[in-house]
DNA sequence: TATTCCGATAGTGAC
DNA sequence: GTCACTATCGGAATGAG
């Protein structure tokens, strides 16, 4: 079988010994004994990471490289065997999500949704779990397939939550879902372009139009969050608090984006929003 | 009905009074009381002209502008009425063909086929007869529709000869052919790309490939003709003739092309080829 | 569903 | 089947000692 380096690059990362010293910082974001977390080379949102199971962590445990080729090959091994890998990826994803949220607050002073899931029909070999922020604002998000492959309501993106449920379900249901037939999933990528934002779902005929709209949605969201912070700051001043502003850290953003400036620190915000949450007993929309 | 200037530009030419003094030389090539011969703005071959019936020449004779909108509307008027216009266009086409052949010899020192015919489904309003040299070598020949719309064997291009035969045929046959249904003709423009040259008919997957091949065919044809001239010149020297070379005229070429140089004049060539034809009793391929 | 390159295909707007 | 512009769609190559 002839494969270009590009299609097997993830496997080459997954083969690295522990610690993966020869993986540059521009690729490797984090790692554990069992997983690697890497920056997606072509991020489709502001934050976009891939979690990979490390081959050496599983080959001593009854798995082959082939088992780890894709979600489909992994699920073929059965619920128990697949479940162990999926749970390891889930654990790494939780860490990654927490890191991304921390960086969201550091850079943008608010958190927003993060989608975690698999592609049923991947192009690159070696199973990879996507951790991607719910904005779809990125210069690498270029075509309909890119977009439709990440929208949870597009029926292509398989959330980790869904896959985890299959693993706990009746074997007959699991086997049905584990088929992951490309003939079933591929057509879904050709669906019309619909904005994924709640209370919008507007349709677009072209990618440039959709992208302009997504940028607008993102700009509006930032403006709303800024206004919210300013209301909170005002409230805080009234209540007599006296903390000063401080610069934020950096390191996880996978695409260039402009954070709005503010005189509130991340810590102030989290503190204030947390207290407000308790007071108002309402849902926050920043975490799925 | 809303039409852009581009779609009705031919009608605006056809409305010009006699003589059409305000039509620039870059557009008007020739005219008679009944017709205009204009350069095709986007020539699909080295030579490409359009023959138009002039509106004032027919409106006093029972025709409306609408009758002259297209071949289809003209034929709707019946065989006799359509025939008069077609014969006028034919007469102008004969003059045009002679002029083009003269210019072929002046510039390229040989003649090649000239196709004369209509498009059954035109885009521009006002009936126009195409007079186009059989080379399809032009920077304006850009897509499959352009190409397939002029190849006589492509079943789209209606030669003047064919249309003239309809006019003399049984009314039932005439009426059938006069329908010119776009649903019948349009699909023919999507046919595969086949070289139109006799003894070739090679298929091509892309326009750049076809165009490269057509350029090659043209270059080879020019080389063959040059070799032929040189053989003739040698023959002529042996027979003791002593005519000198002279430069050629210009004015009809509708696209930039490079003529091969030669020391033979057009007159020499025609004279020699004529005499050779008689001697060898073989076909020449330069004139149909 | 890796990207990139090339080219075909499709829709639009033109005054 | 007018053109020119934009964007989509569709295939093929992609590495490399």
From TrEMBL, chains A, B:
SUPFAM superfamilies in UniProt: HIT-like
Superkingdom of origin organism: Eukaryota
GO CC aspect terms: nucleus
InterPro entries in the record: HIT-like_sf (IPR036265), Znf-C2HE (IPR032566)
A Pfam family reported for this protein in Swiss-Prot or TrEMBL: zf-C2HE
Organism: Antrodiella citrinella
Any one GO molecular function term: single-stranded DNA binding
Ranges of compositional bias, category Polar residues: 251-265
Domain Aprataxin C2HE/C2H2/C2HC zinc finger, chain residue ranges per copy: 155-220
UniProt GO BP: single strand break repair
Disordered as annotated region, ranges: 225-288
Protein name per UniProt: Aprataxin C2HE/C2H2/C2HC zinc finger domain-containing protein
């Amino acid at each position: 079988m002839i494969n270009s380096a590009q299609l097997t690059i993830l496997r080459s990362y997954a083969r690295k010994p522990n610690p993966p010293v020869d993986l540059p910082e521009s690729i490797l974001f984090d790692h554990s004994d069992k997983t690697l977390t890497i920056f997606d080379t072509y991020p489709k949102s502001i934050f976009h990471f891939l979690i990979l199971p490390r081959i050496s962590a599983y080959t001593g445990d009854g798995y082959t490289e082939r088992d780890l080729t894709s979600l489909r090959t992994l699920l073929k091994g059965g619920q128990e065997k697949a479940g162990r890998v999926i749970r390891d990826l889930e654990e790494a994803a939780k860490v990654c999500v927490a890191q991304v949220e921390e960086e969201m607050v550091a850079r943008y002073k608010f958190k927003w949704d993060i989608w975690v899931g698999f592609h049923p029909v991947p192009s690159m070999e070696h199973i990879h779990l996507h951790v991607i922020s719910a904005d779809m604002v990125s210069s690498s998000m270029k075509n309909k397939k890119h977009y439709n492959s990440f929208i949870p309501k597009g029926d292509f993106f398989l959330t980790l939550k869904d896959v985890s449920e299959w693993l706990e379900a009746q074997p007959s249901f699991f086997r049905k879902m584990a088929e992951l037939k490309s003939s079933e999933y591929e057509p879904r990528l050709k669906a019309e372009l619909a904005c994924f934002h709640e209370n919008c779902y507007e349709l677009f005929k072209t990618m440039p139009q959709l992208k302009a709209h997504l940028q607008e949605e993102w700009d509006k969201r930032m403006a709303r969050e800024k206004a919210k912070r300013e209301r909170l700051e005002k409230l805080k001043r009234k209540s007599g608090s006296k903390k000063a502003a401080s610069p934020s850290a950096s390191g996880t953003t996978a695409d260039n984006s402009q954070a709005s400036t503010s005189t509130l620190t991340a810590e102030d915000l989290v503190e204030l929003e947390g207290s407000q949450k308790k007071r108002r007993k309402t849902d926050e929309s920043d975490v799925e």
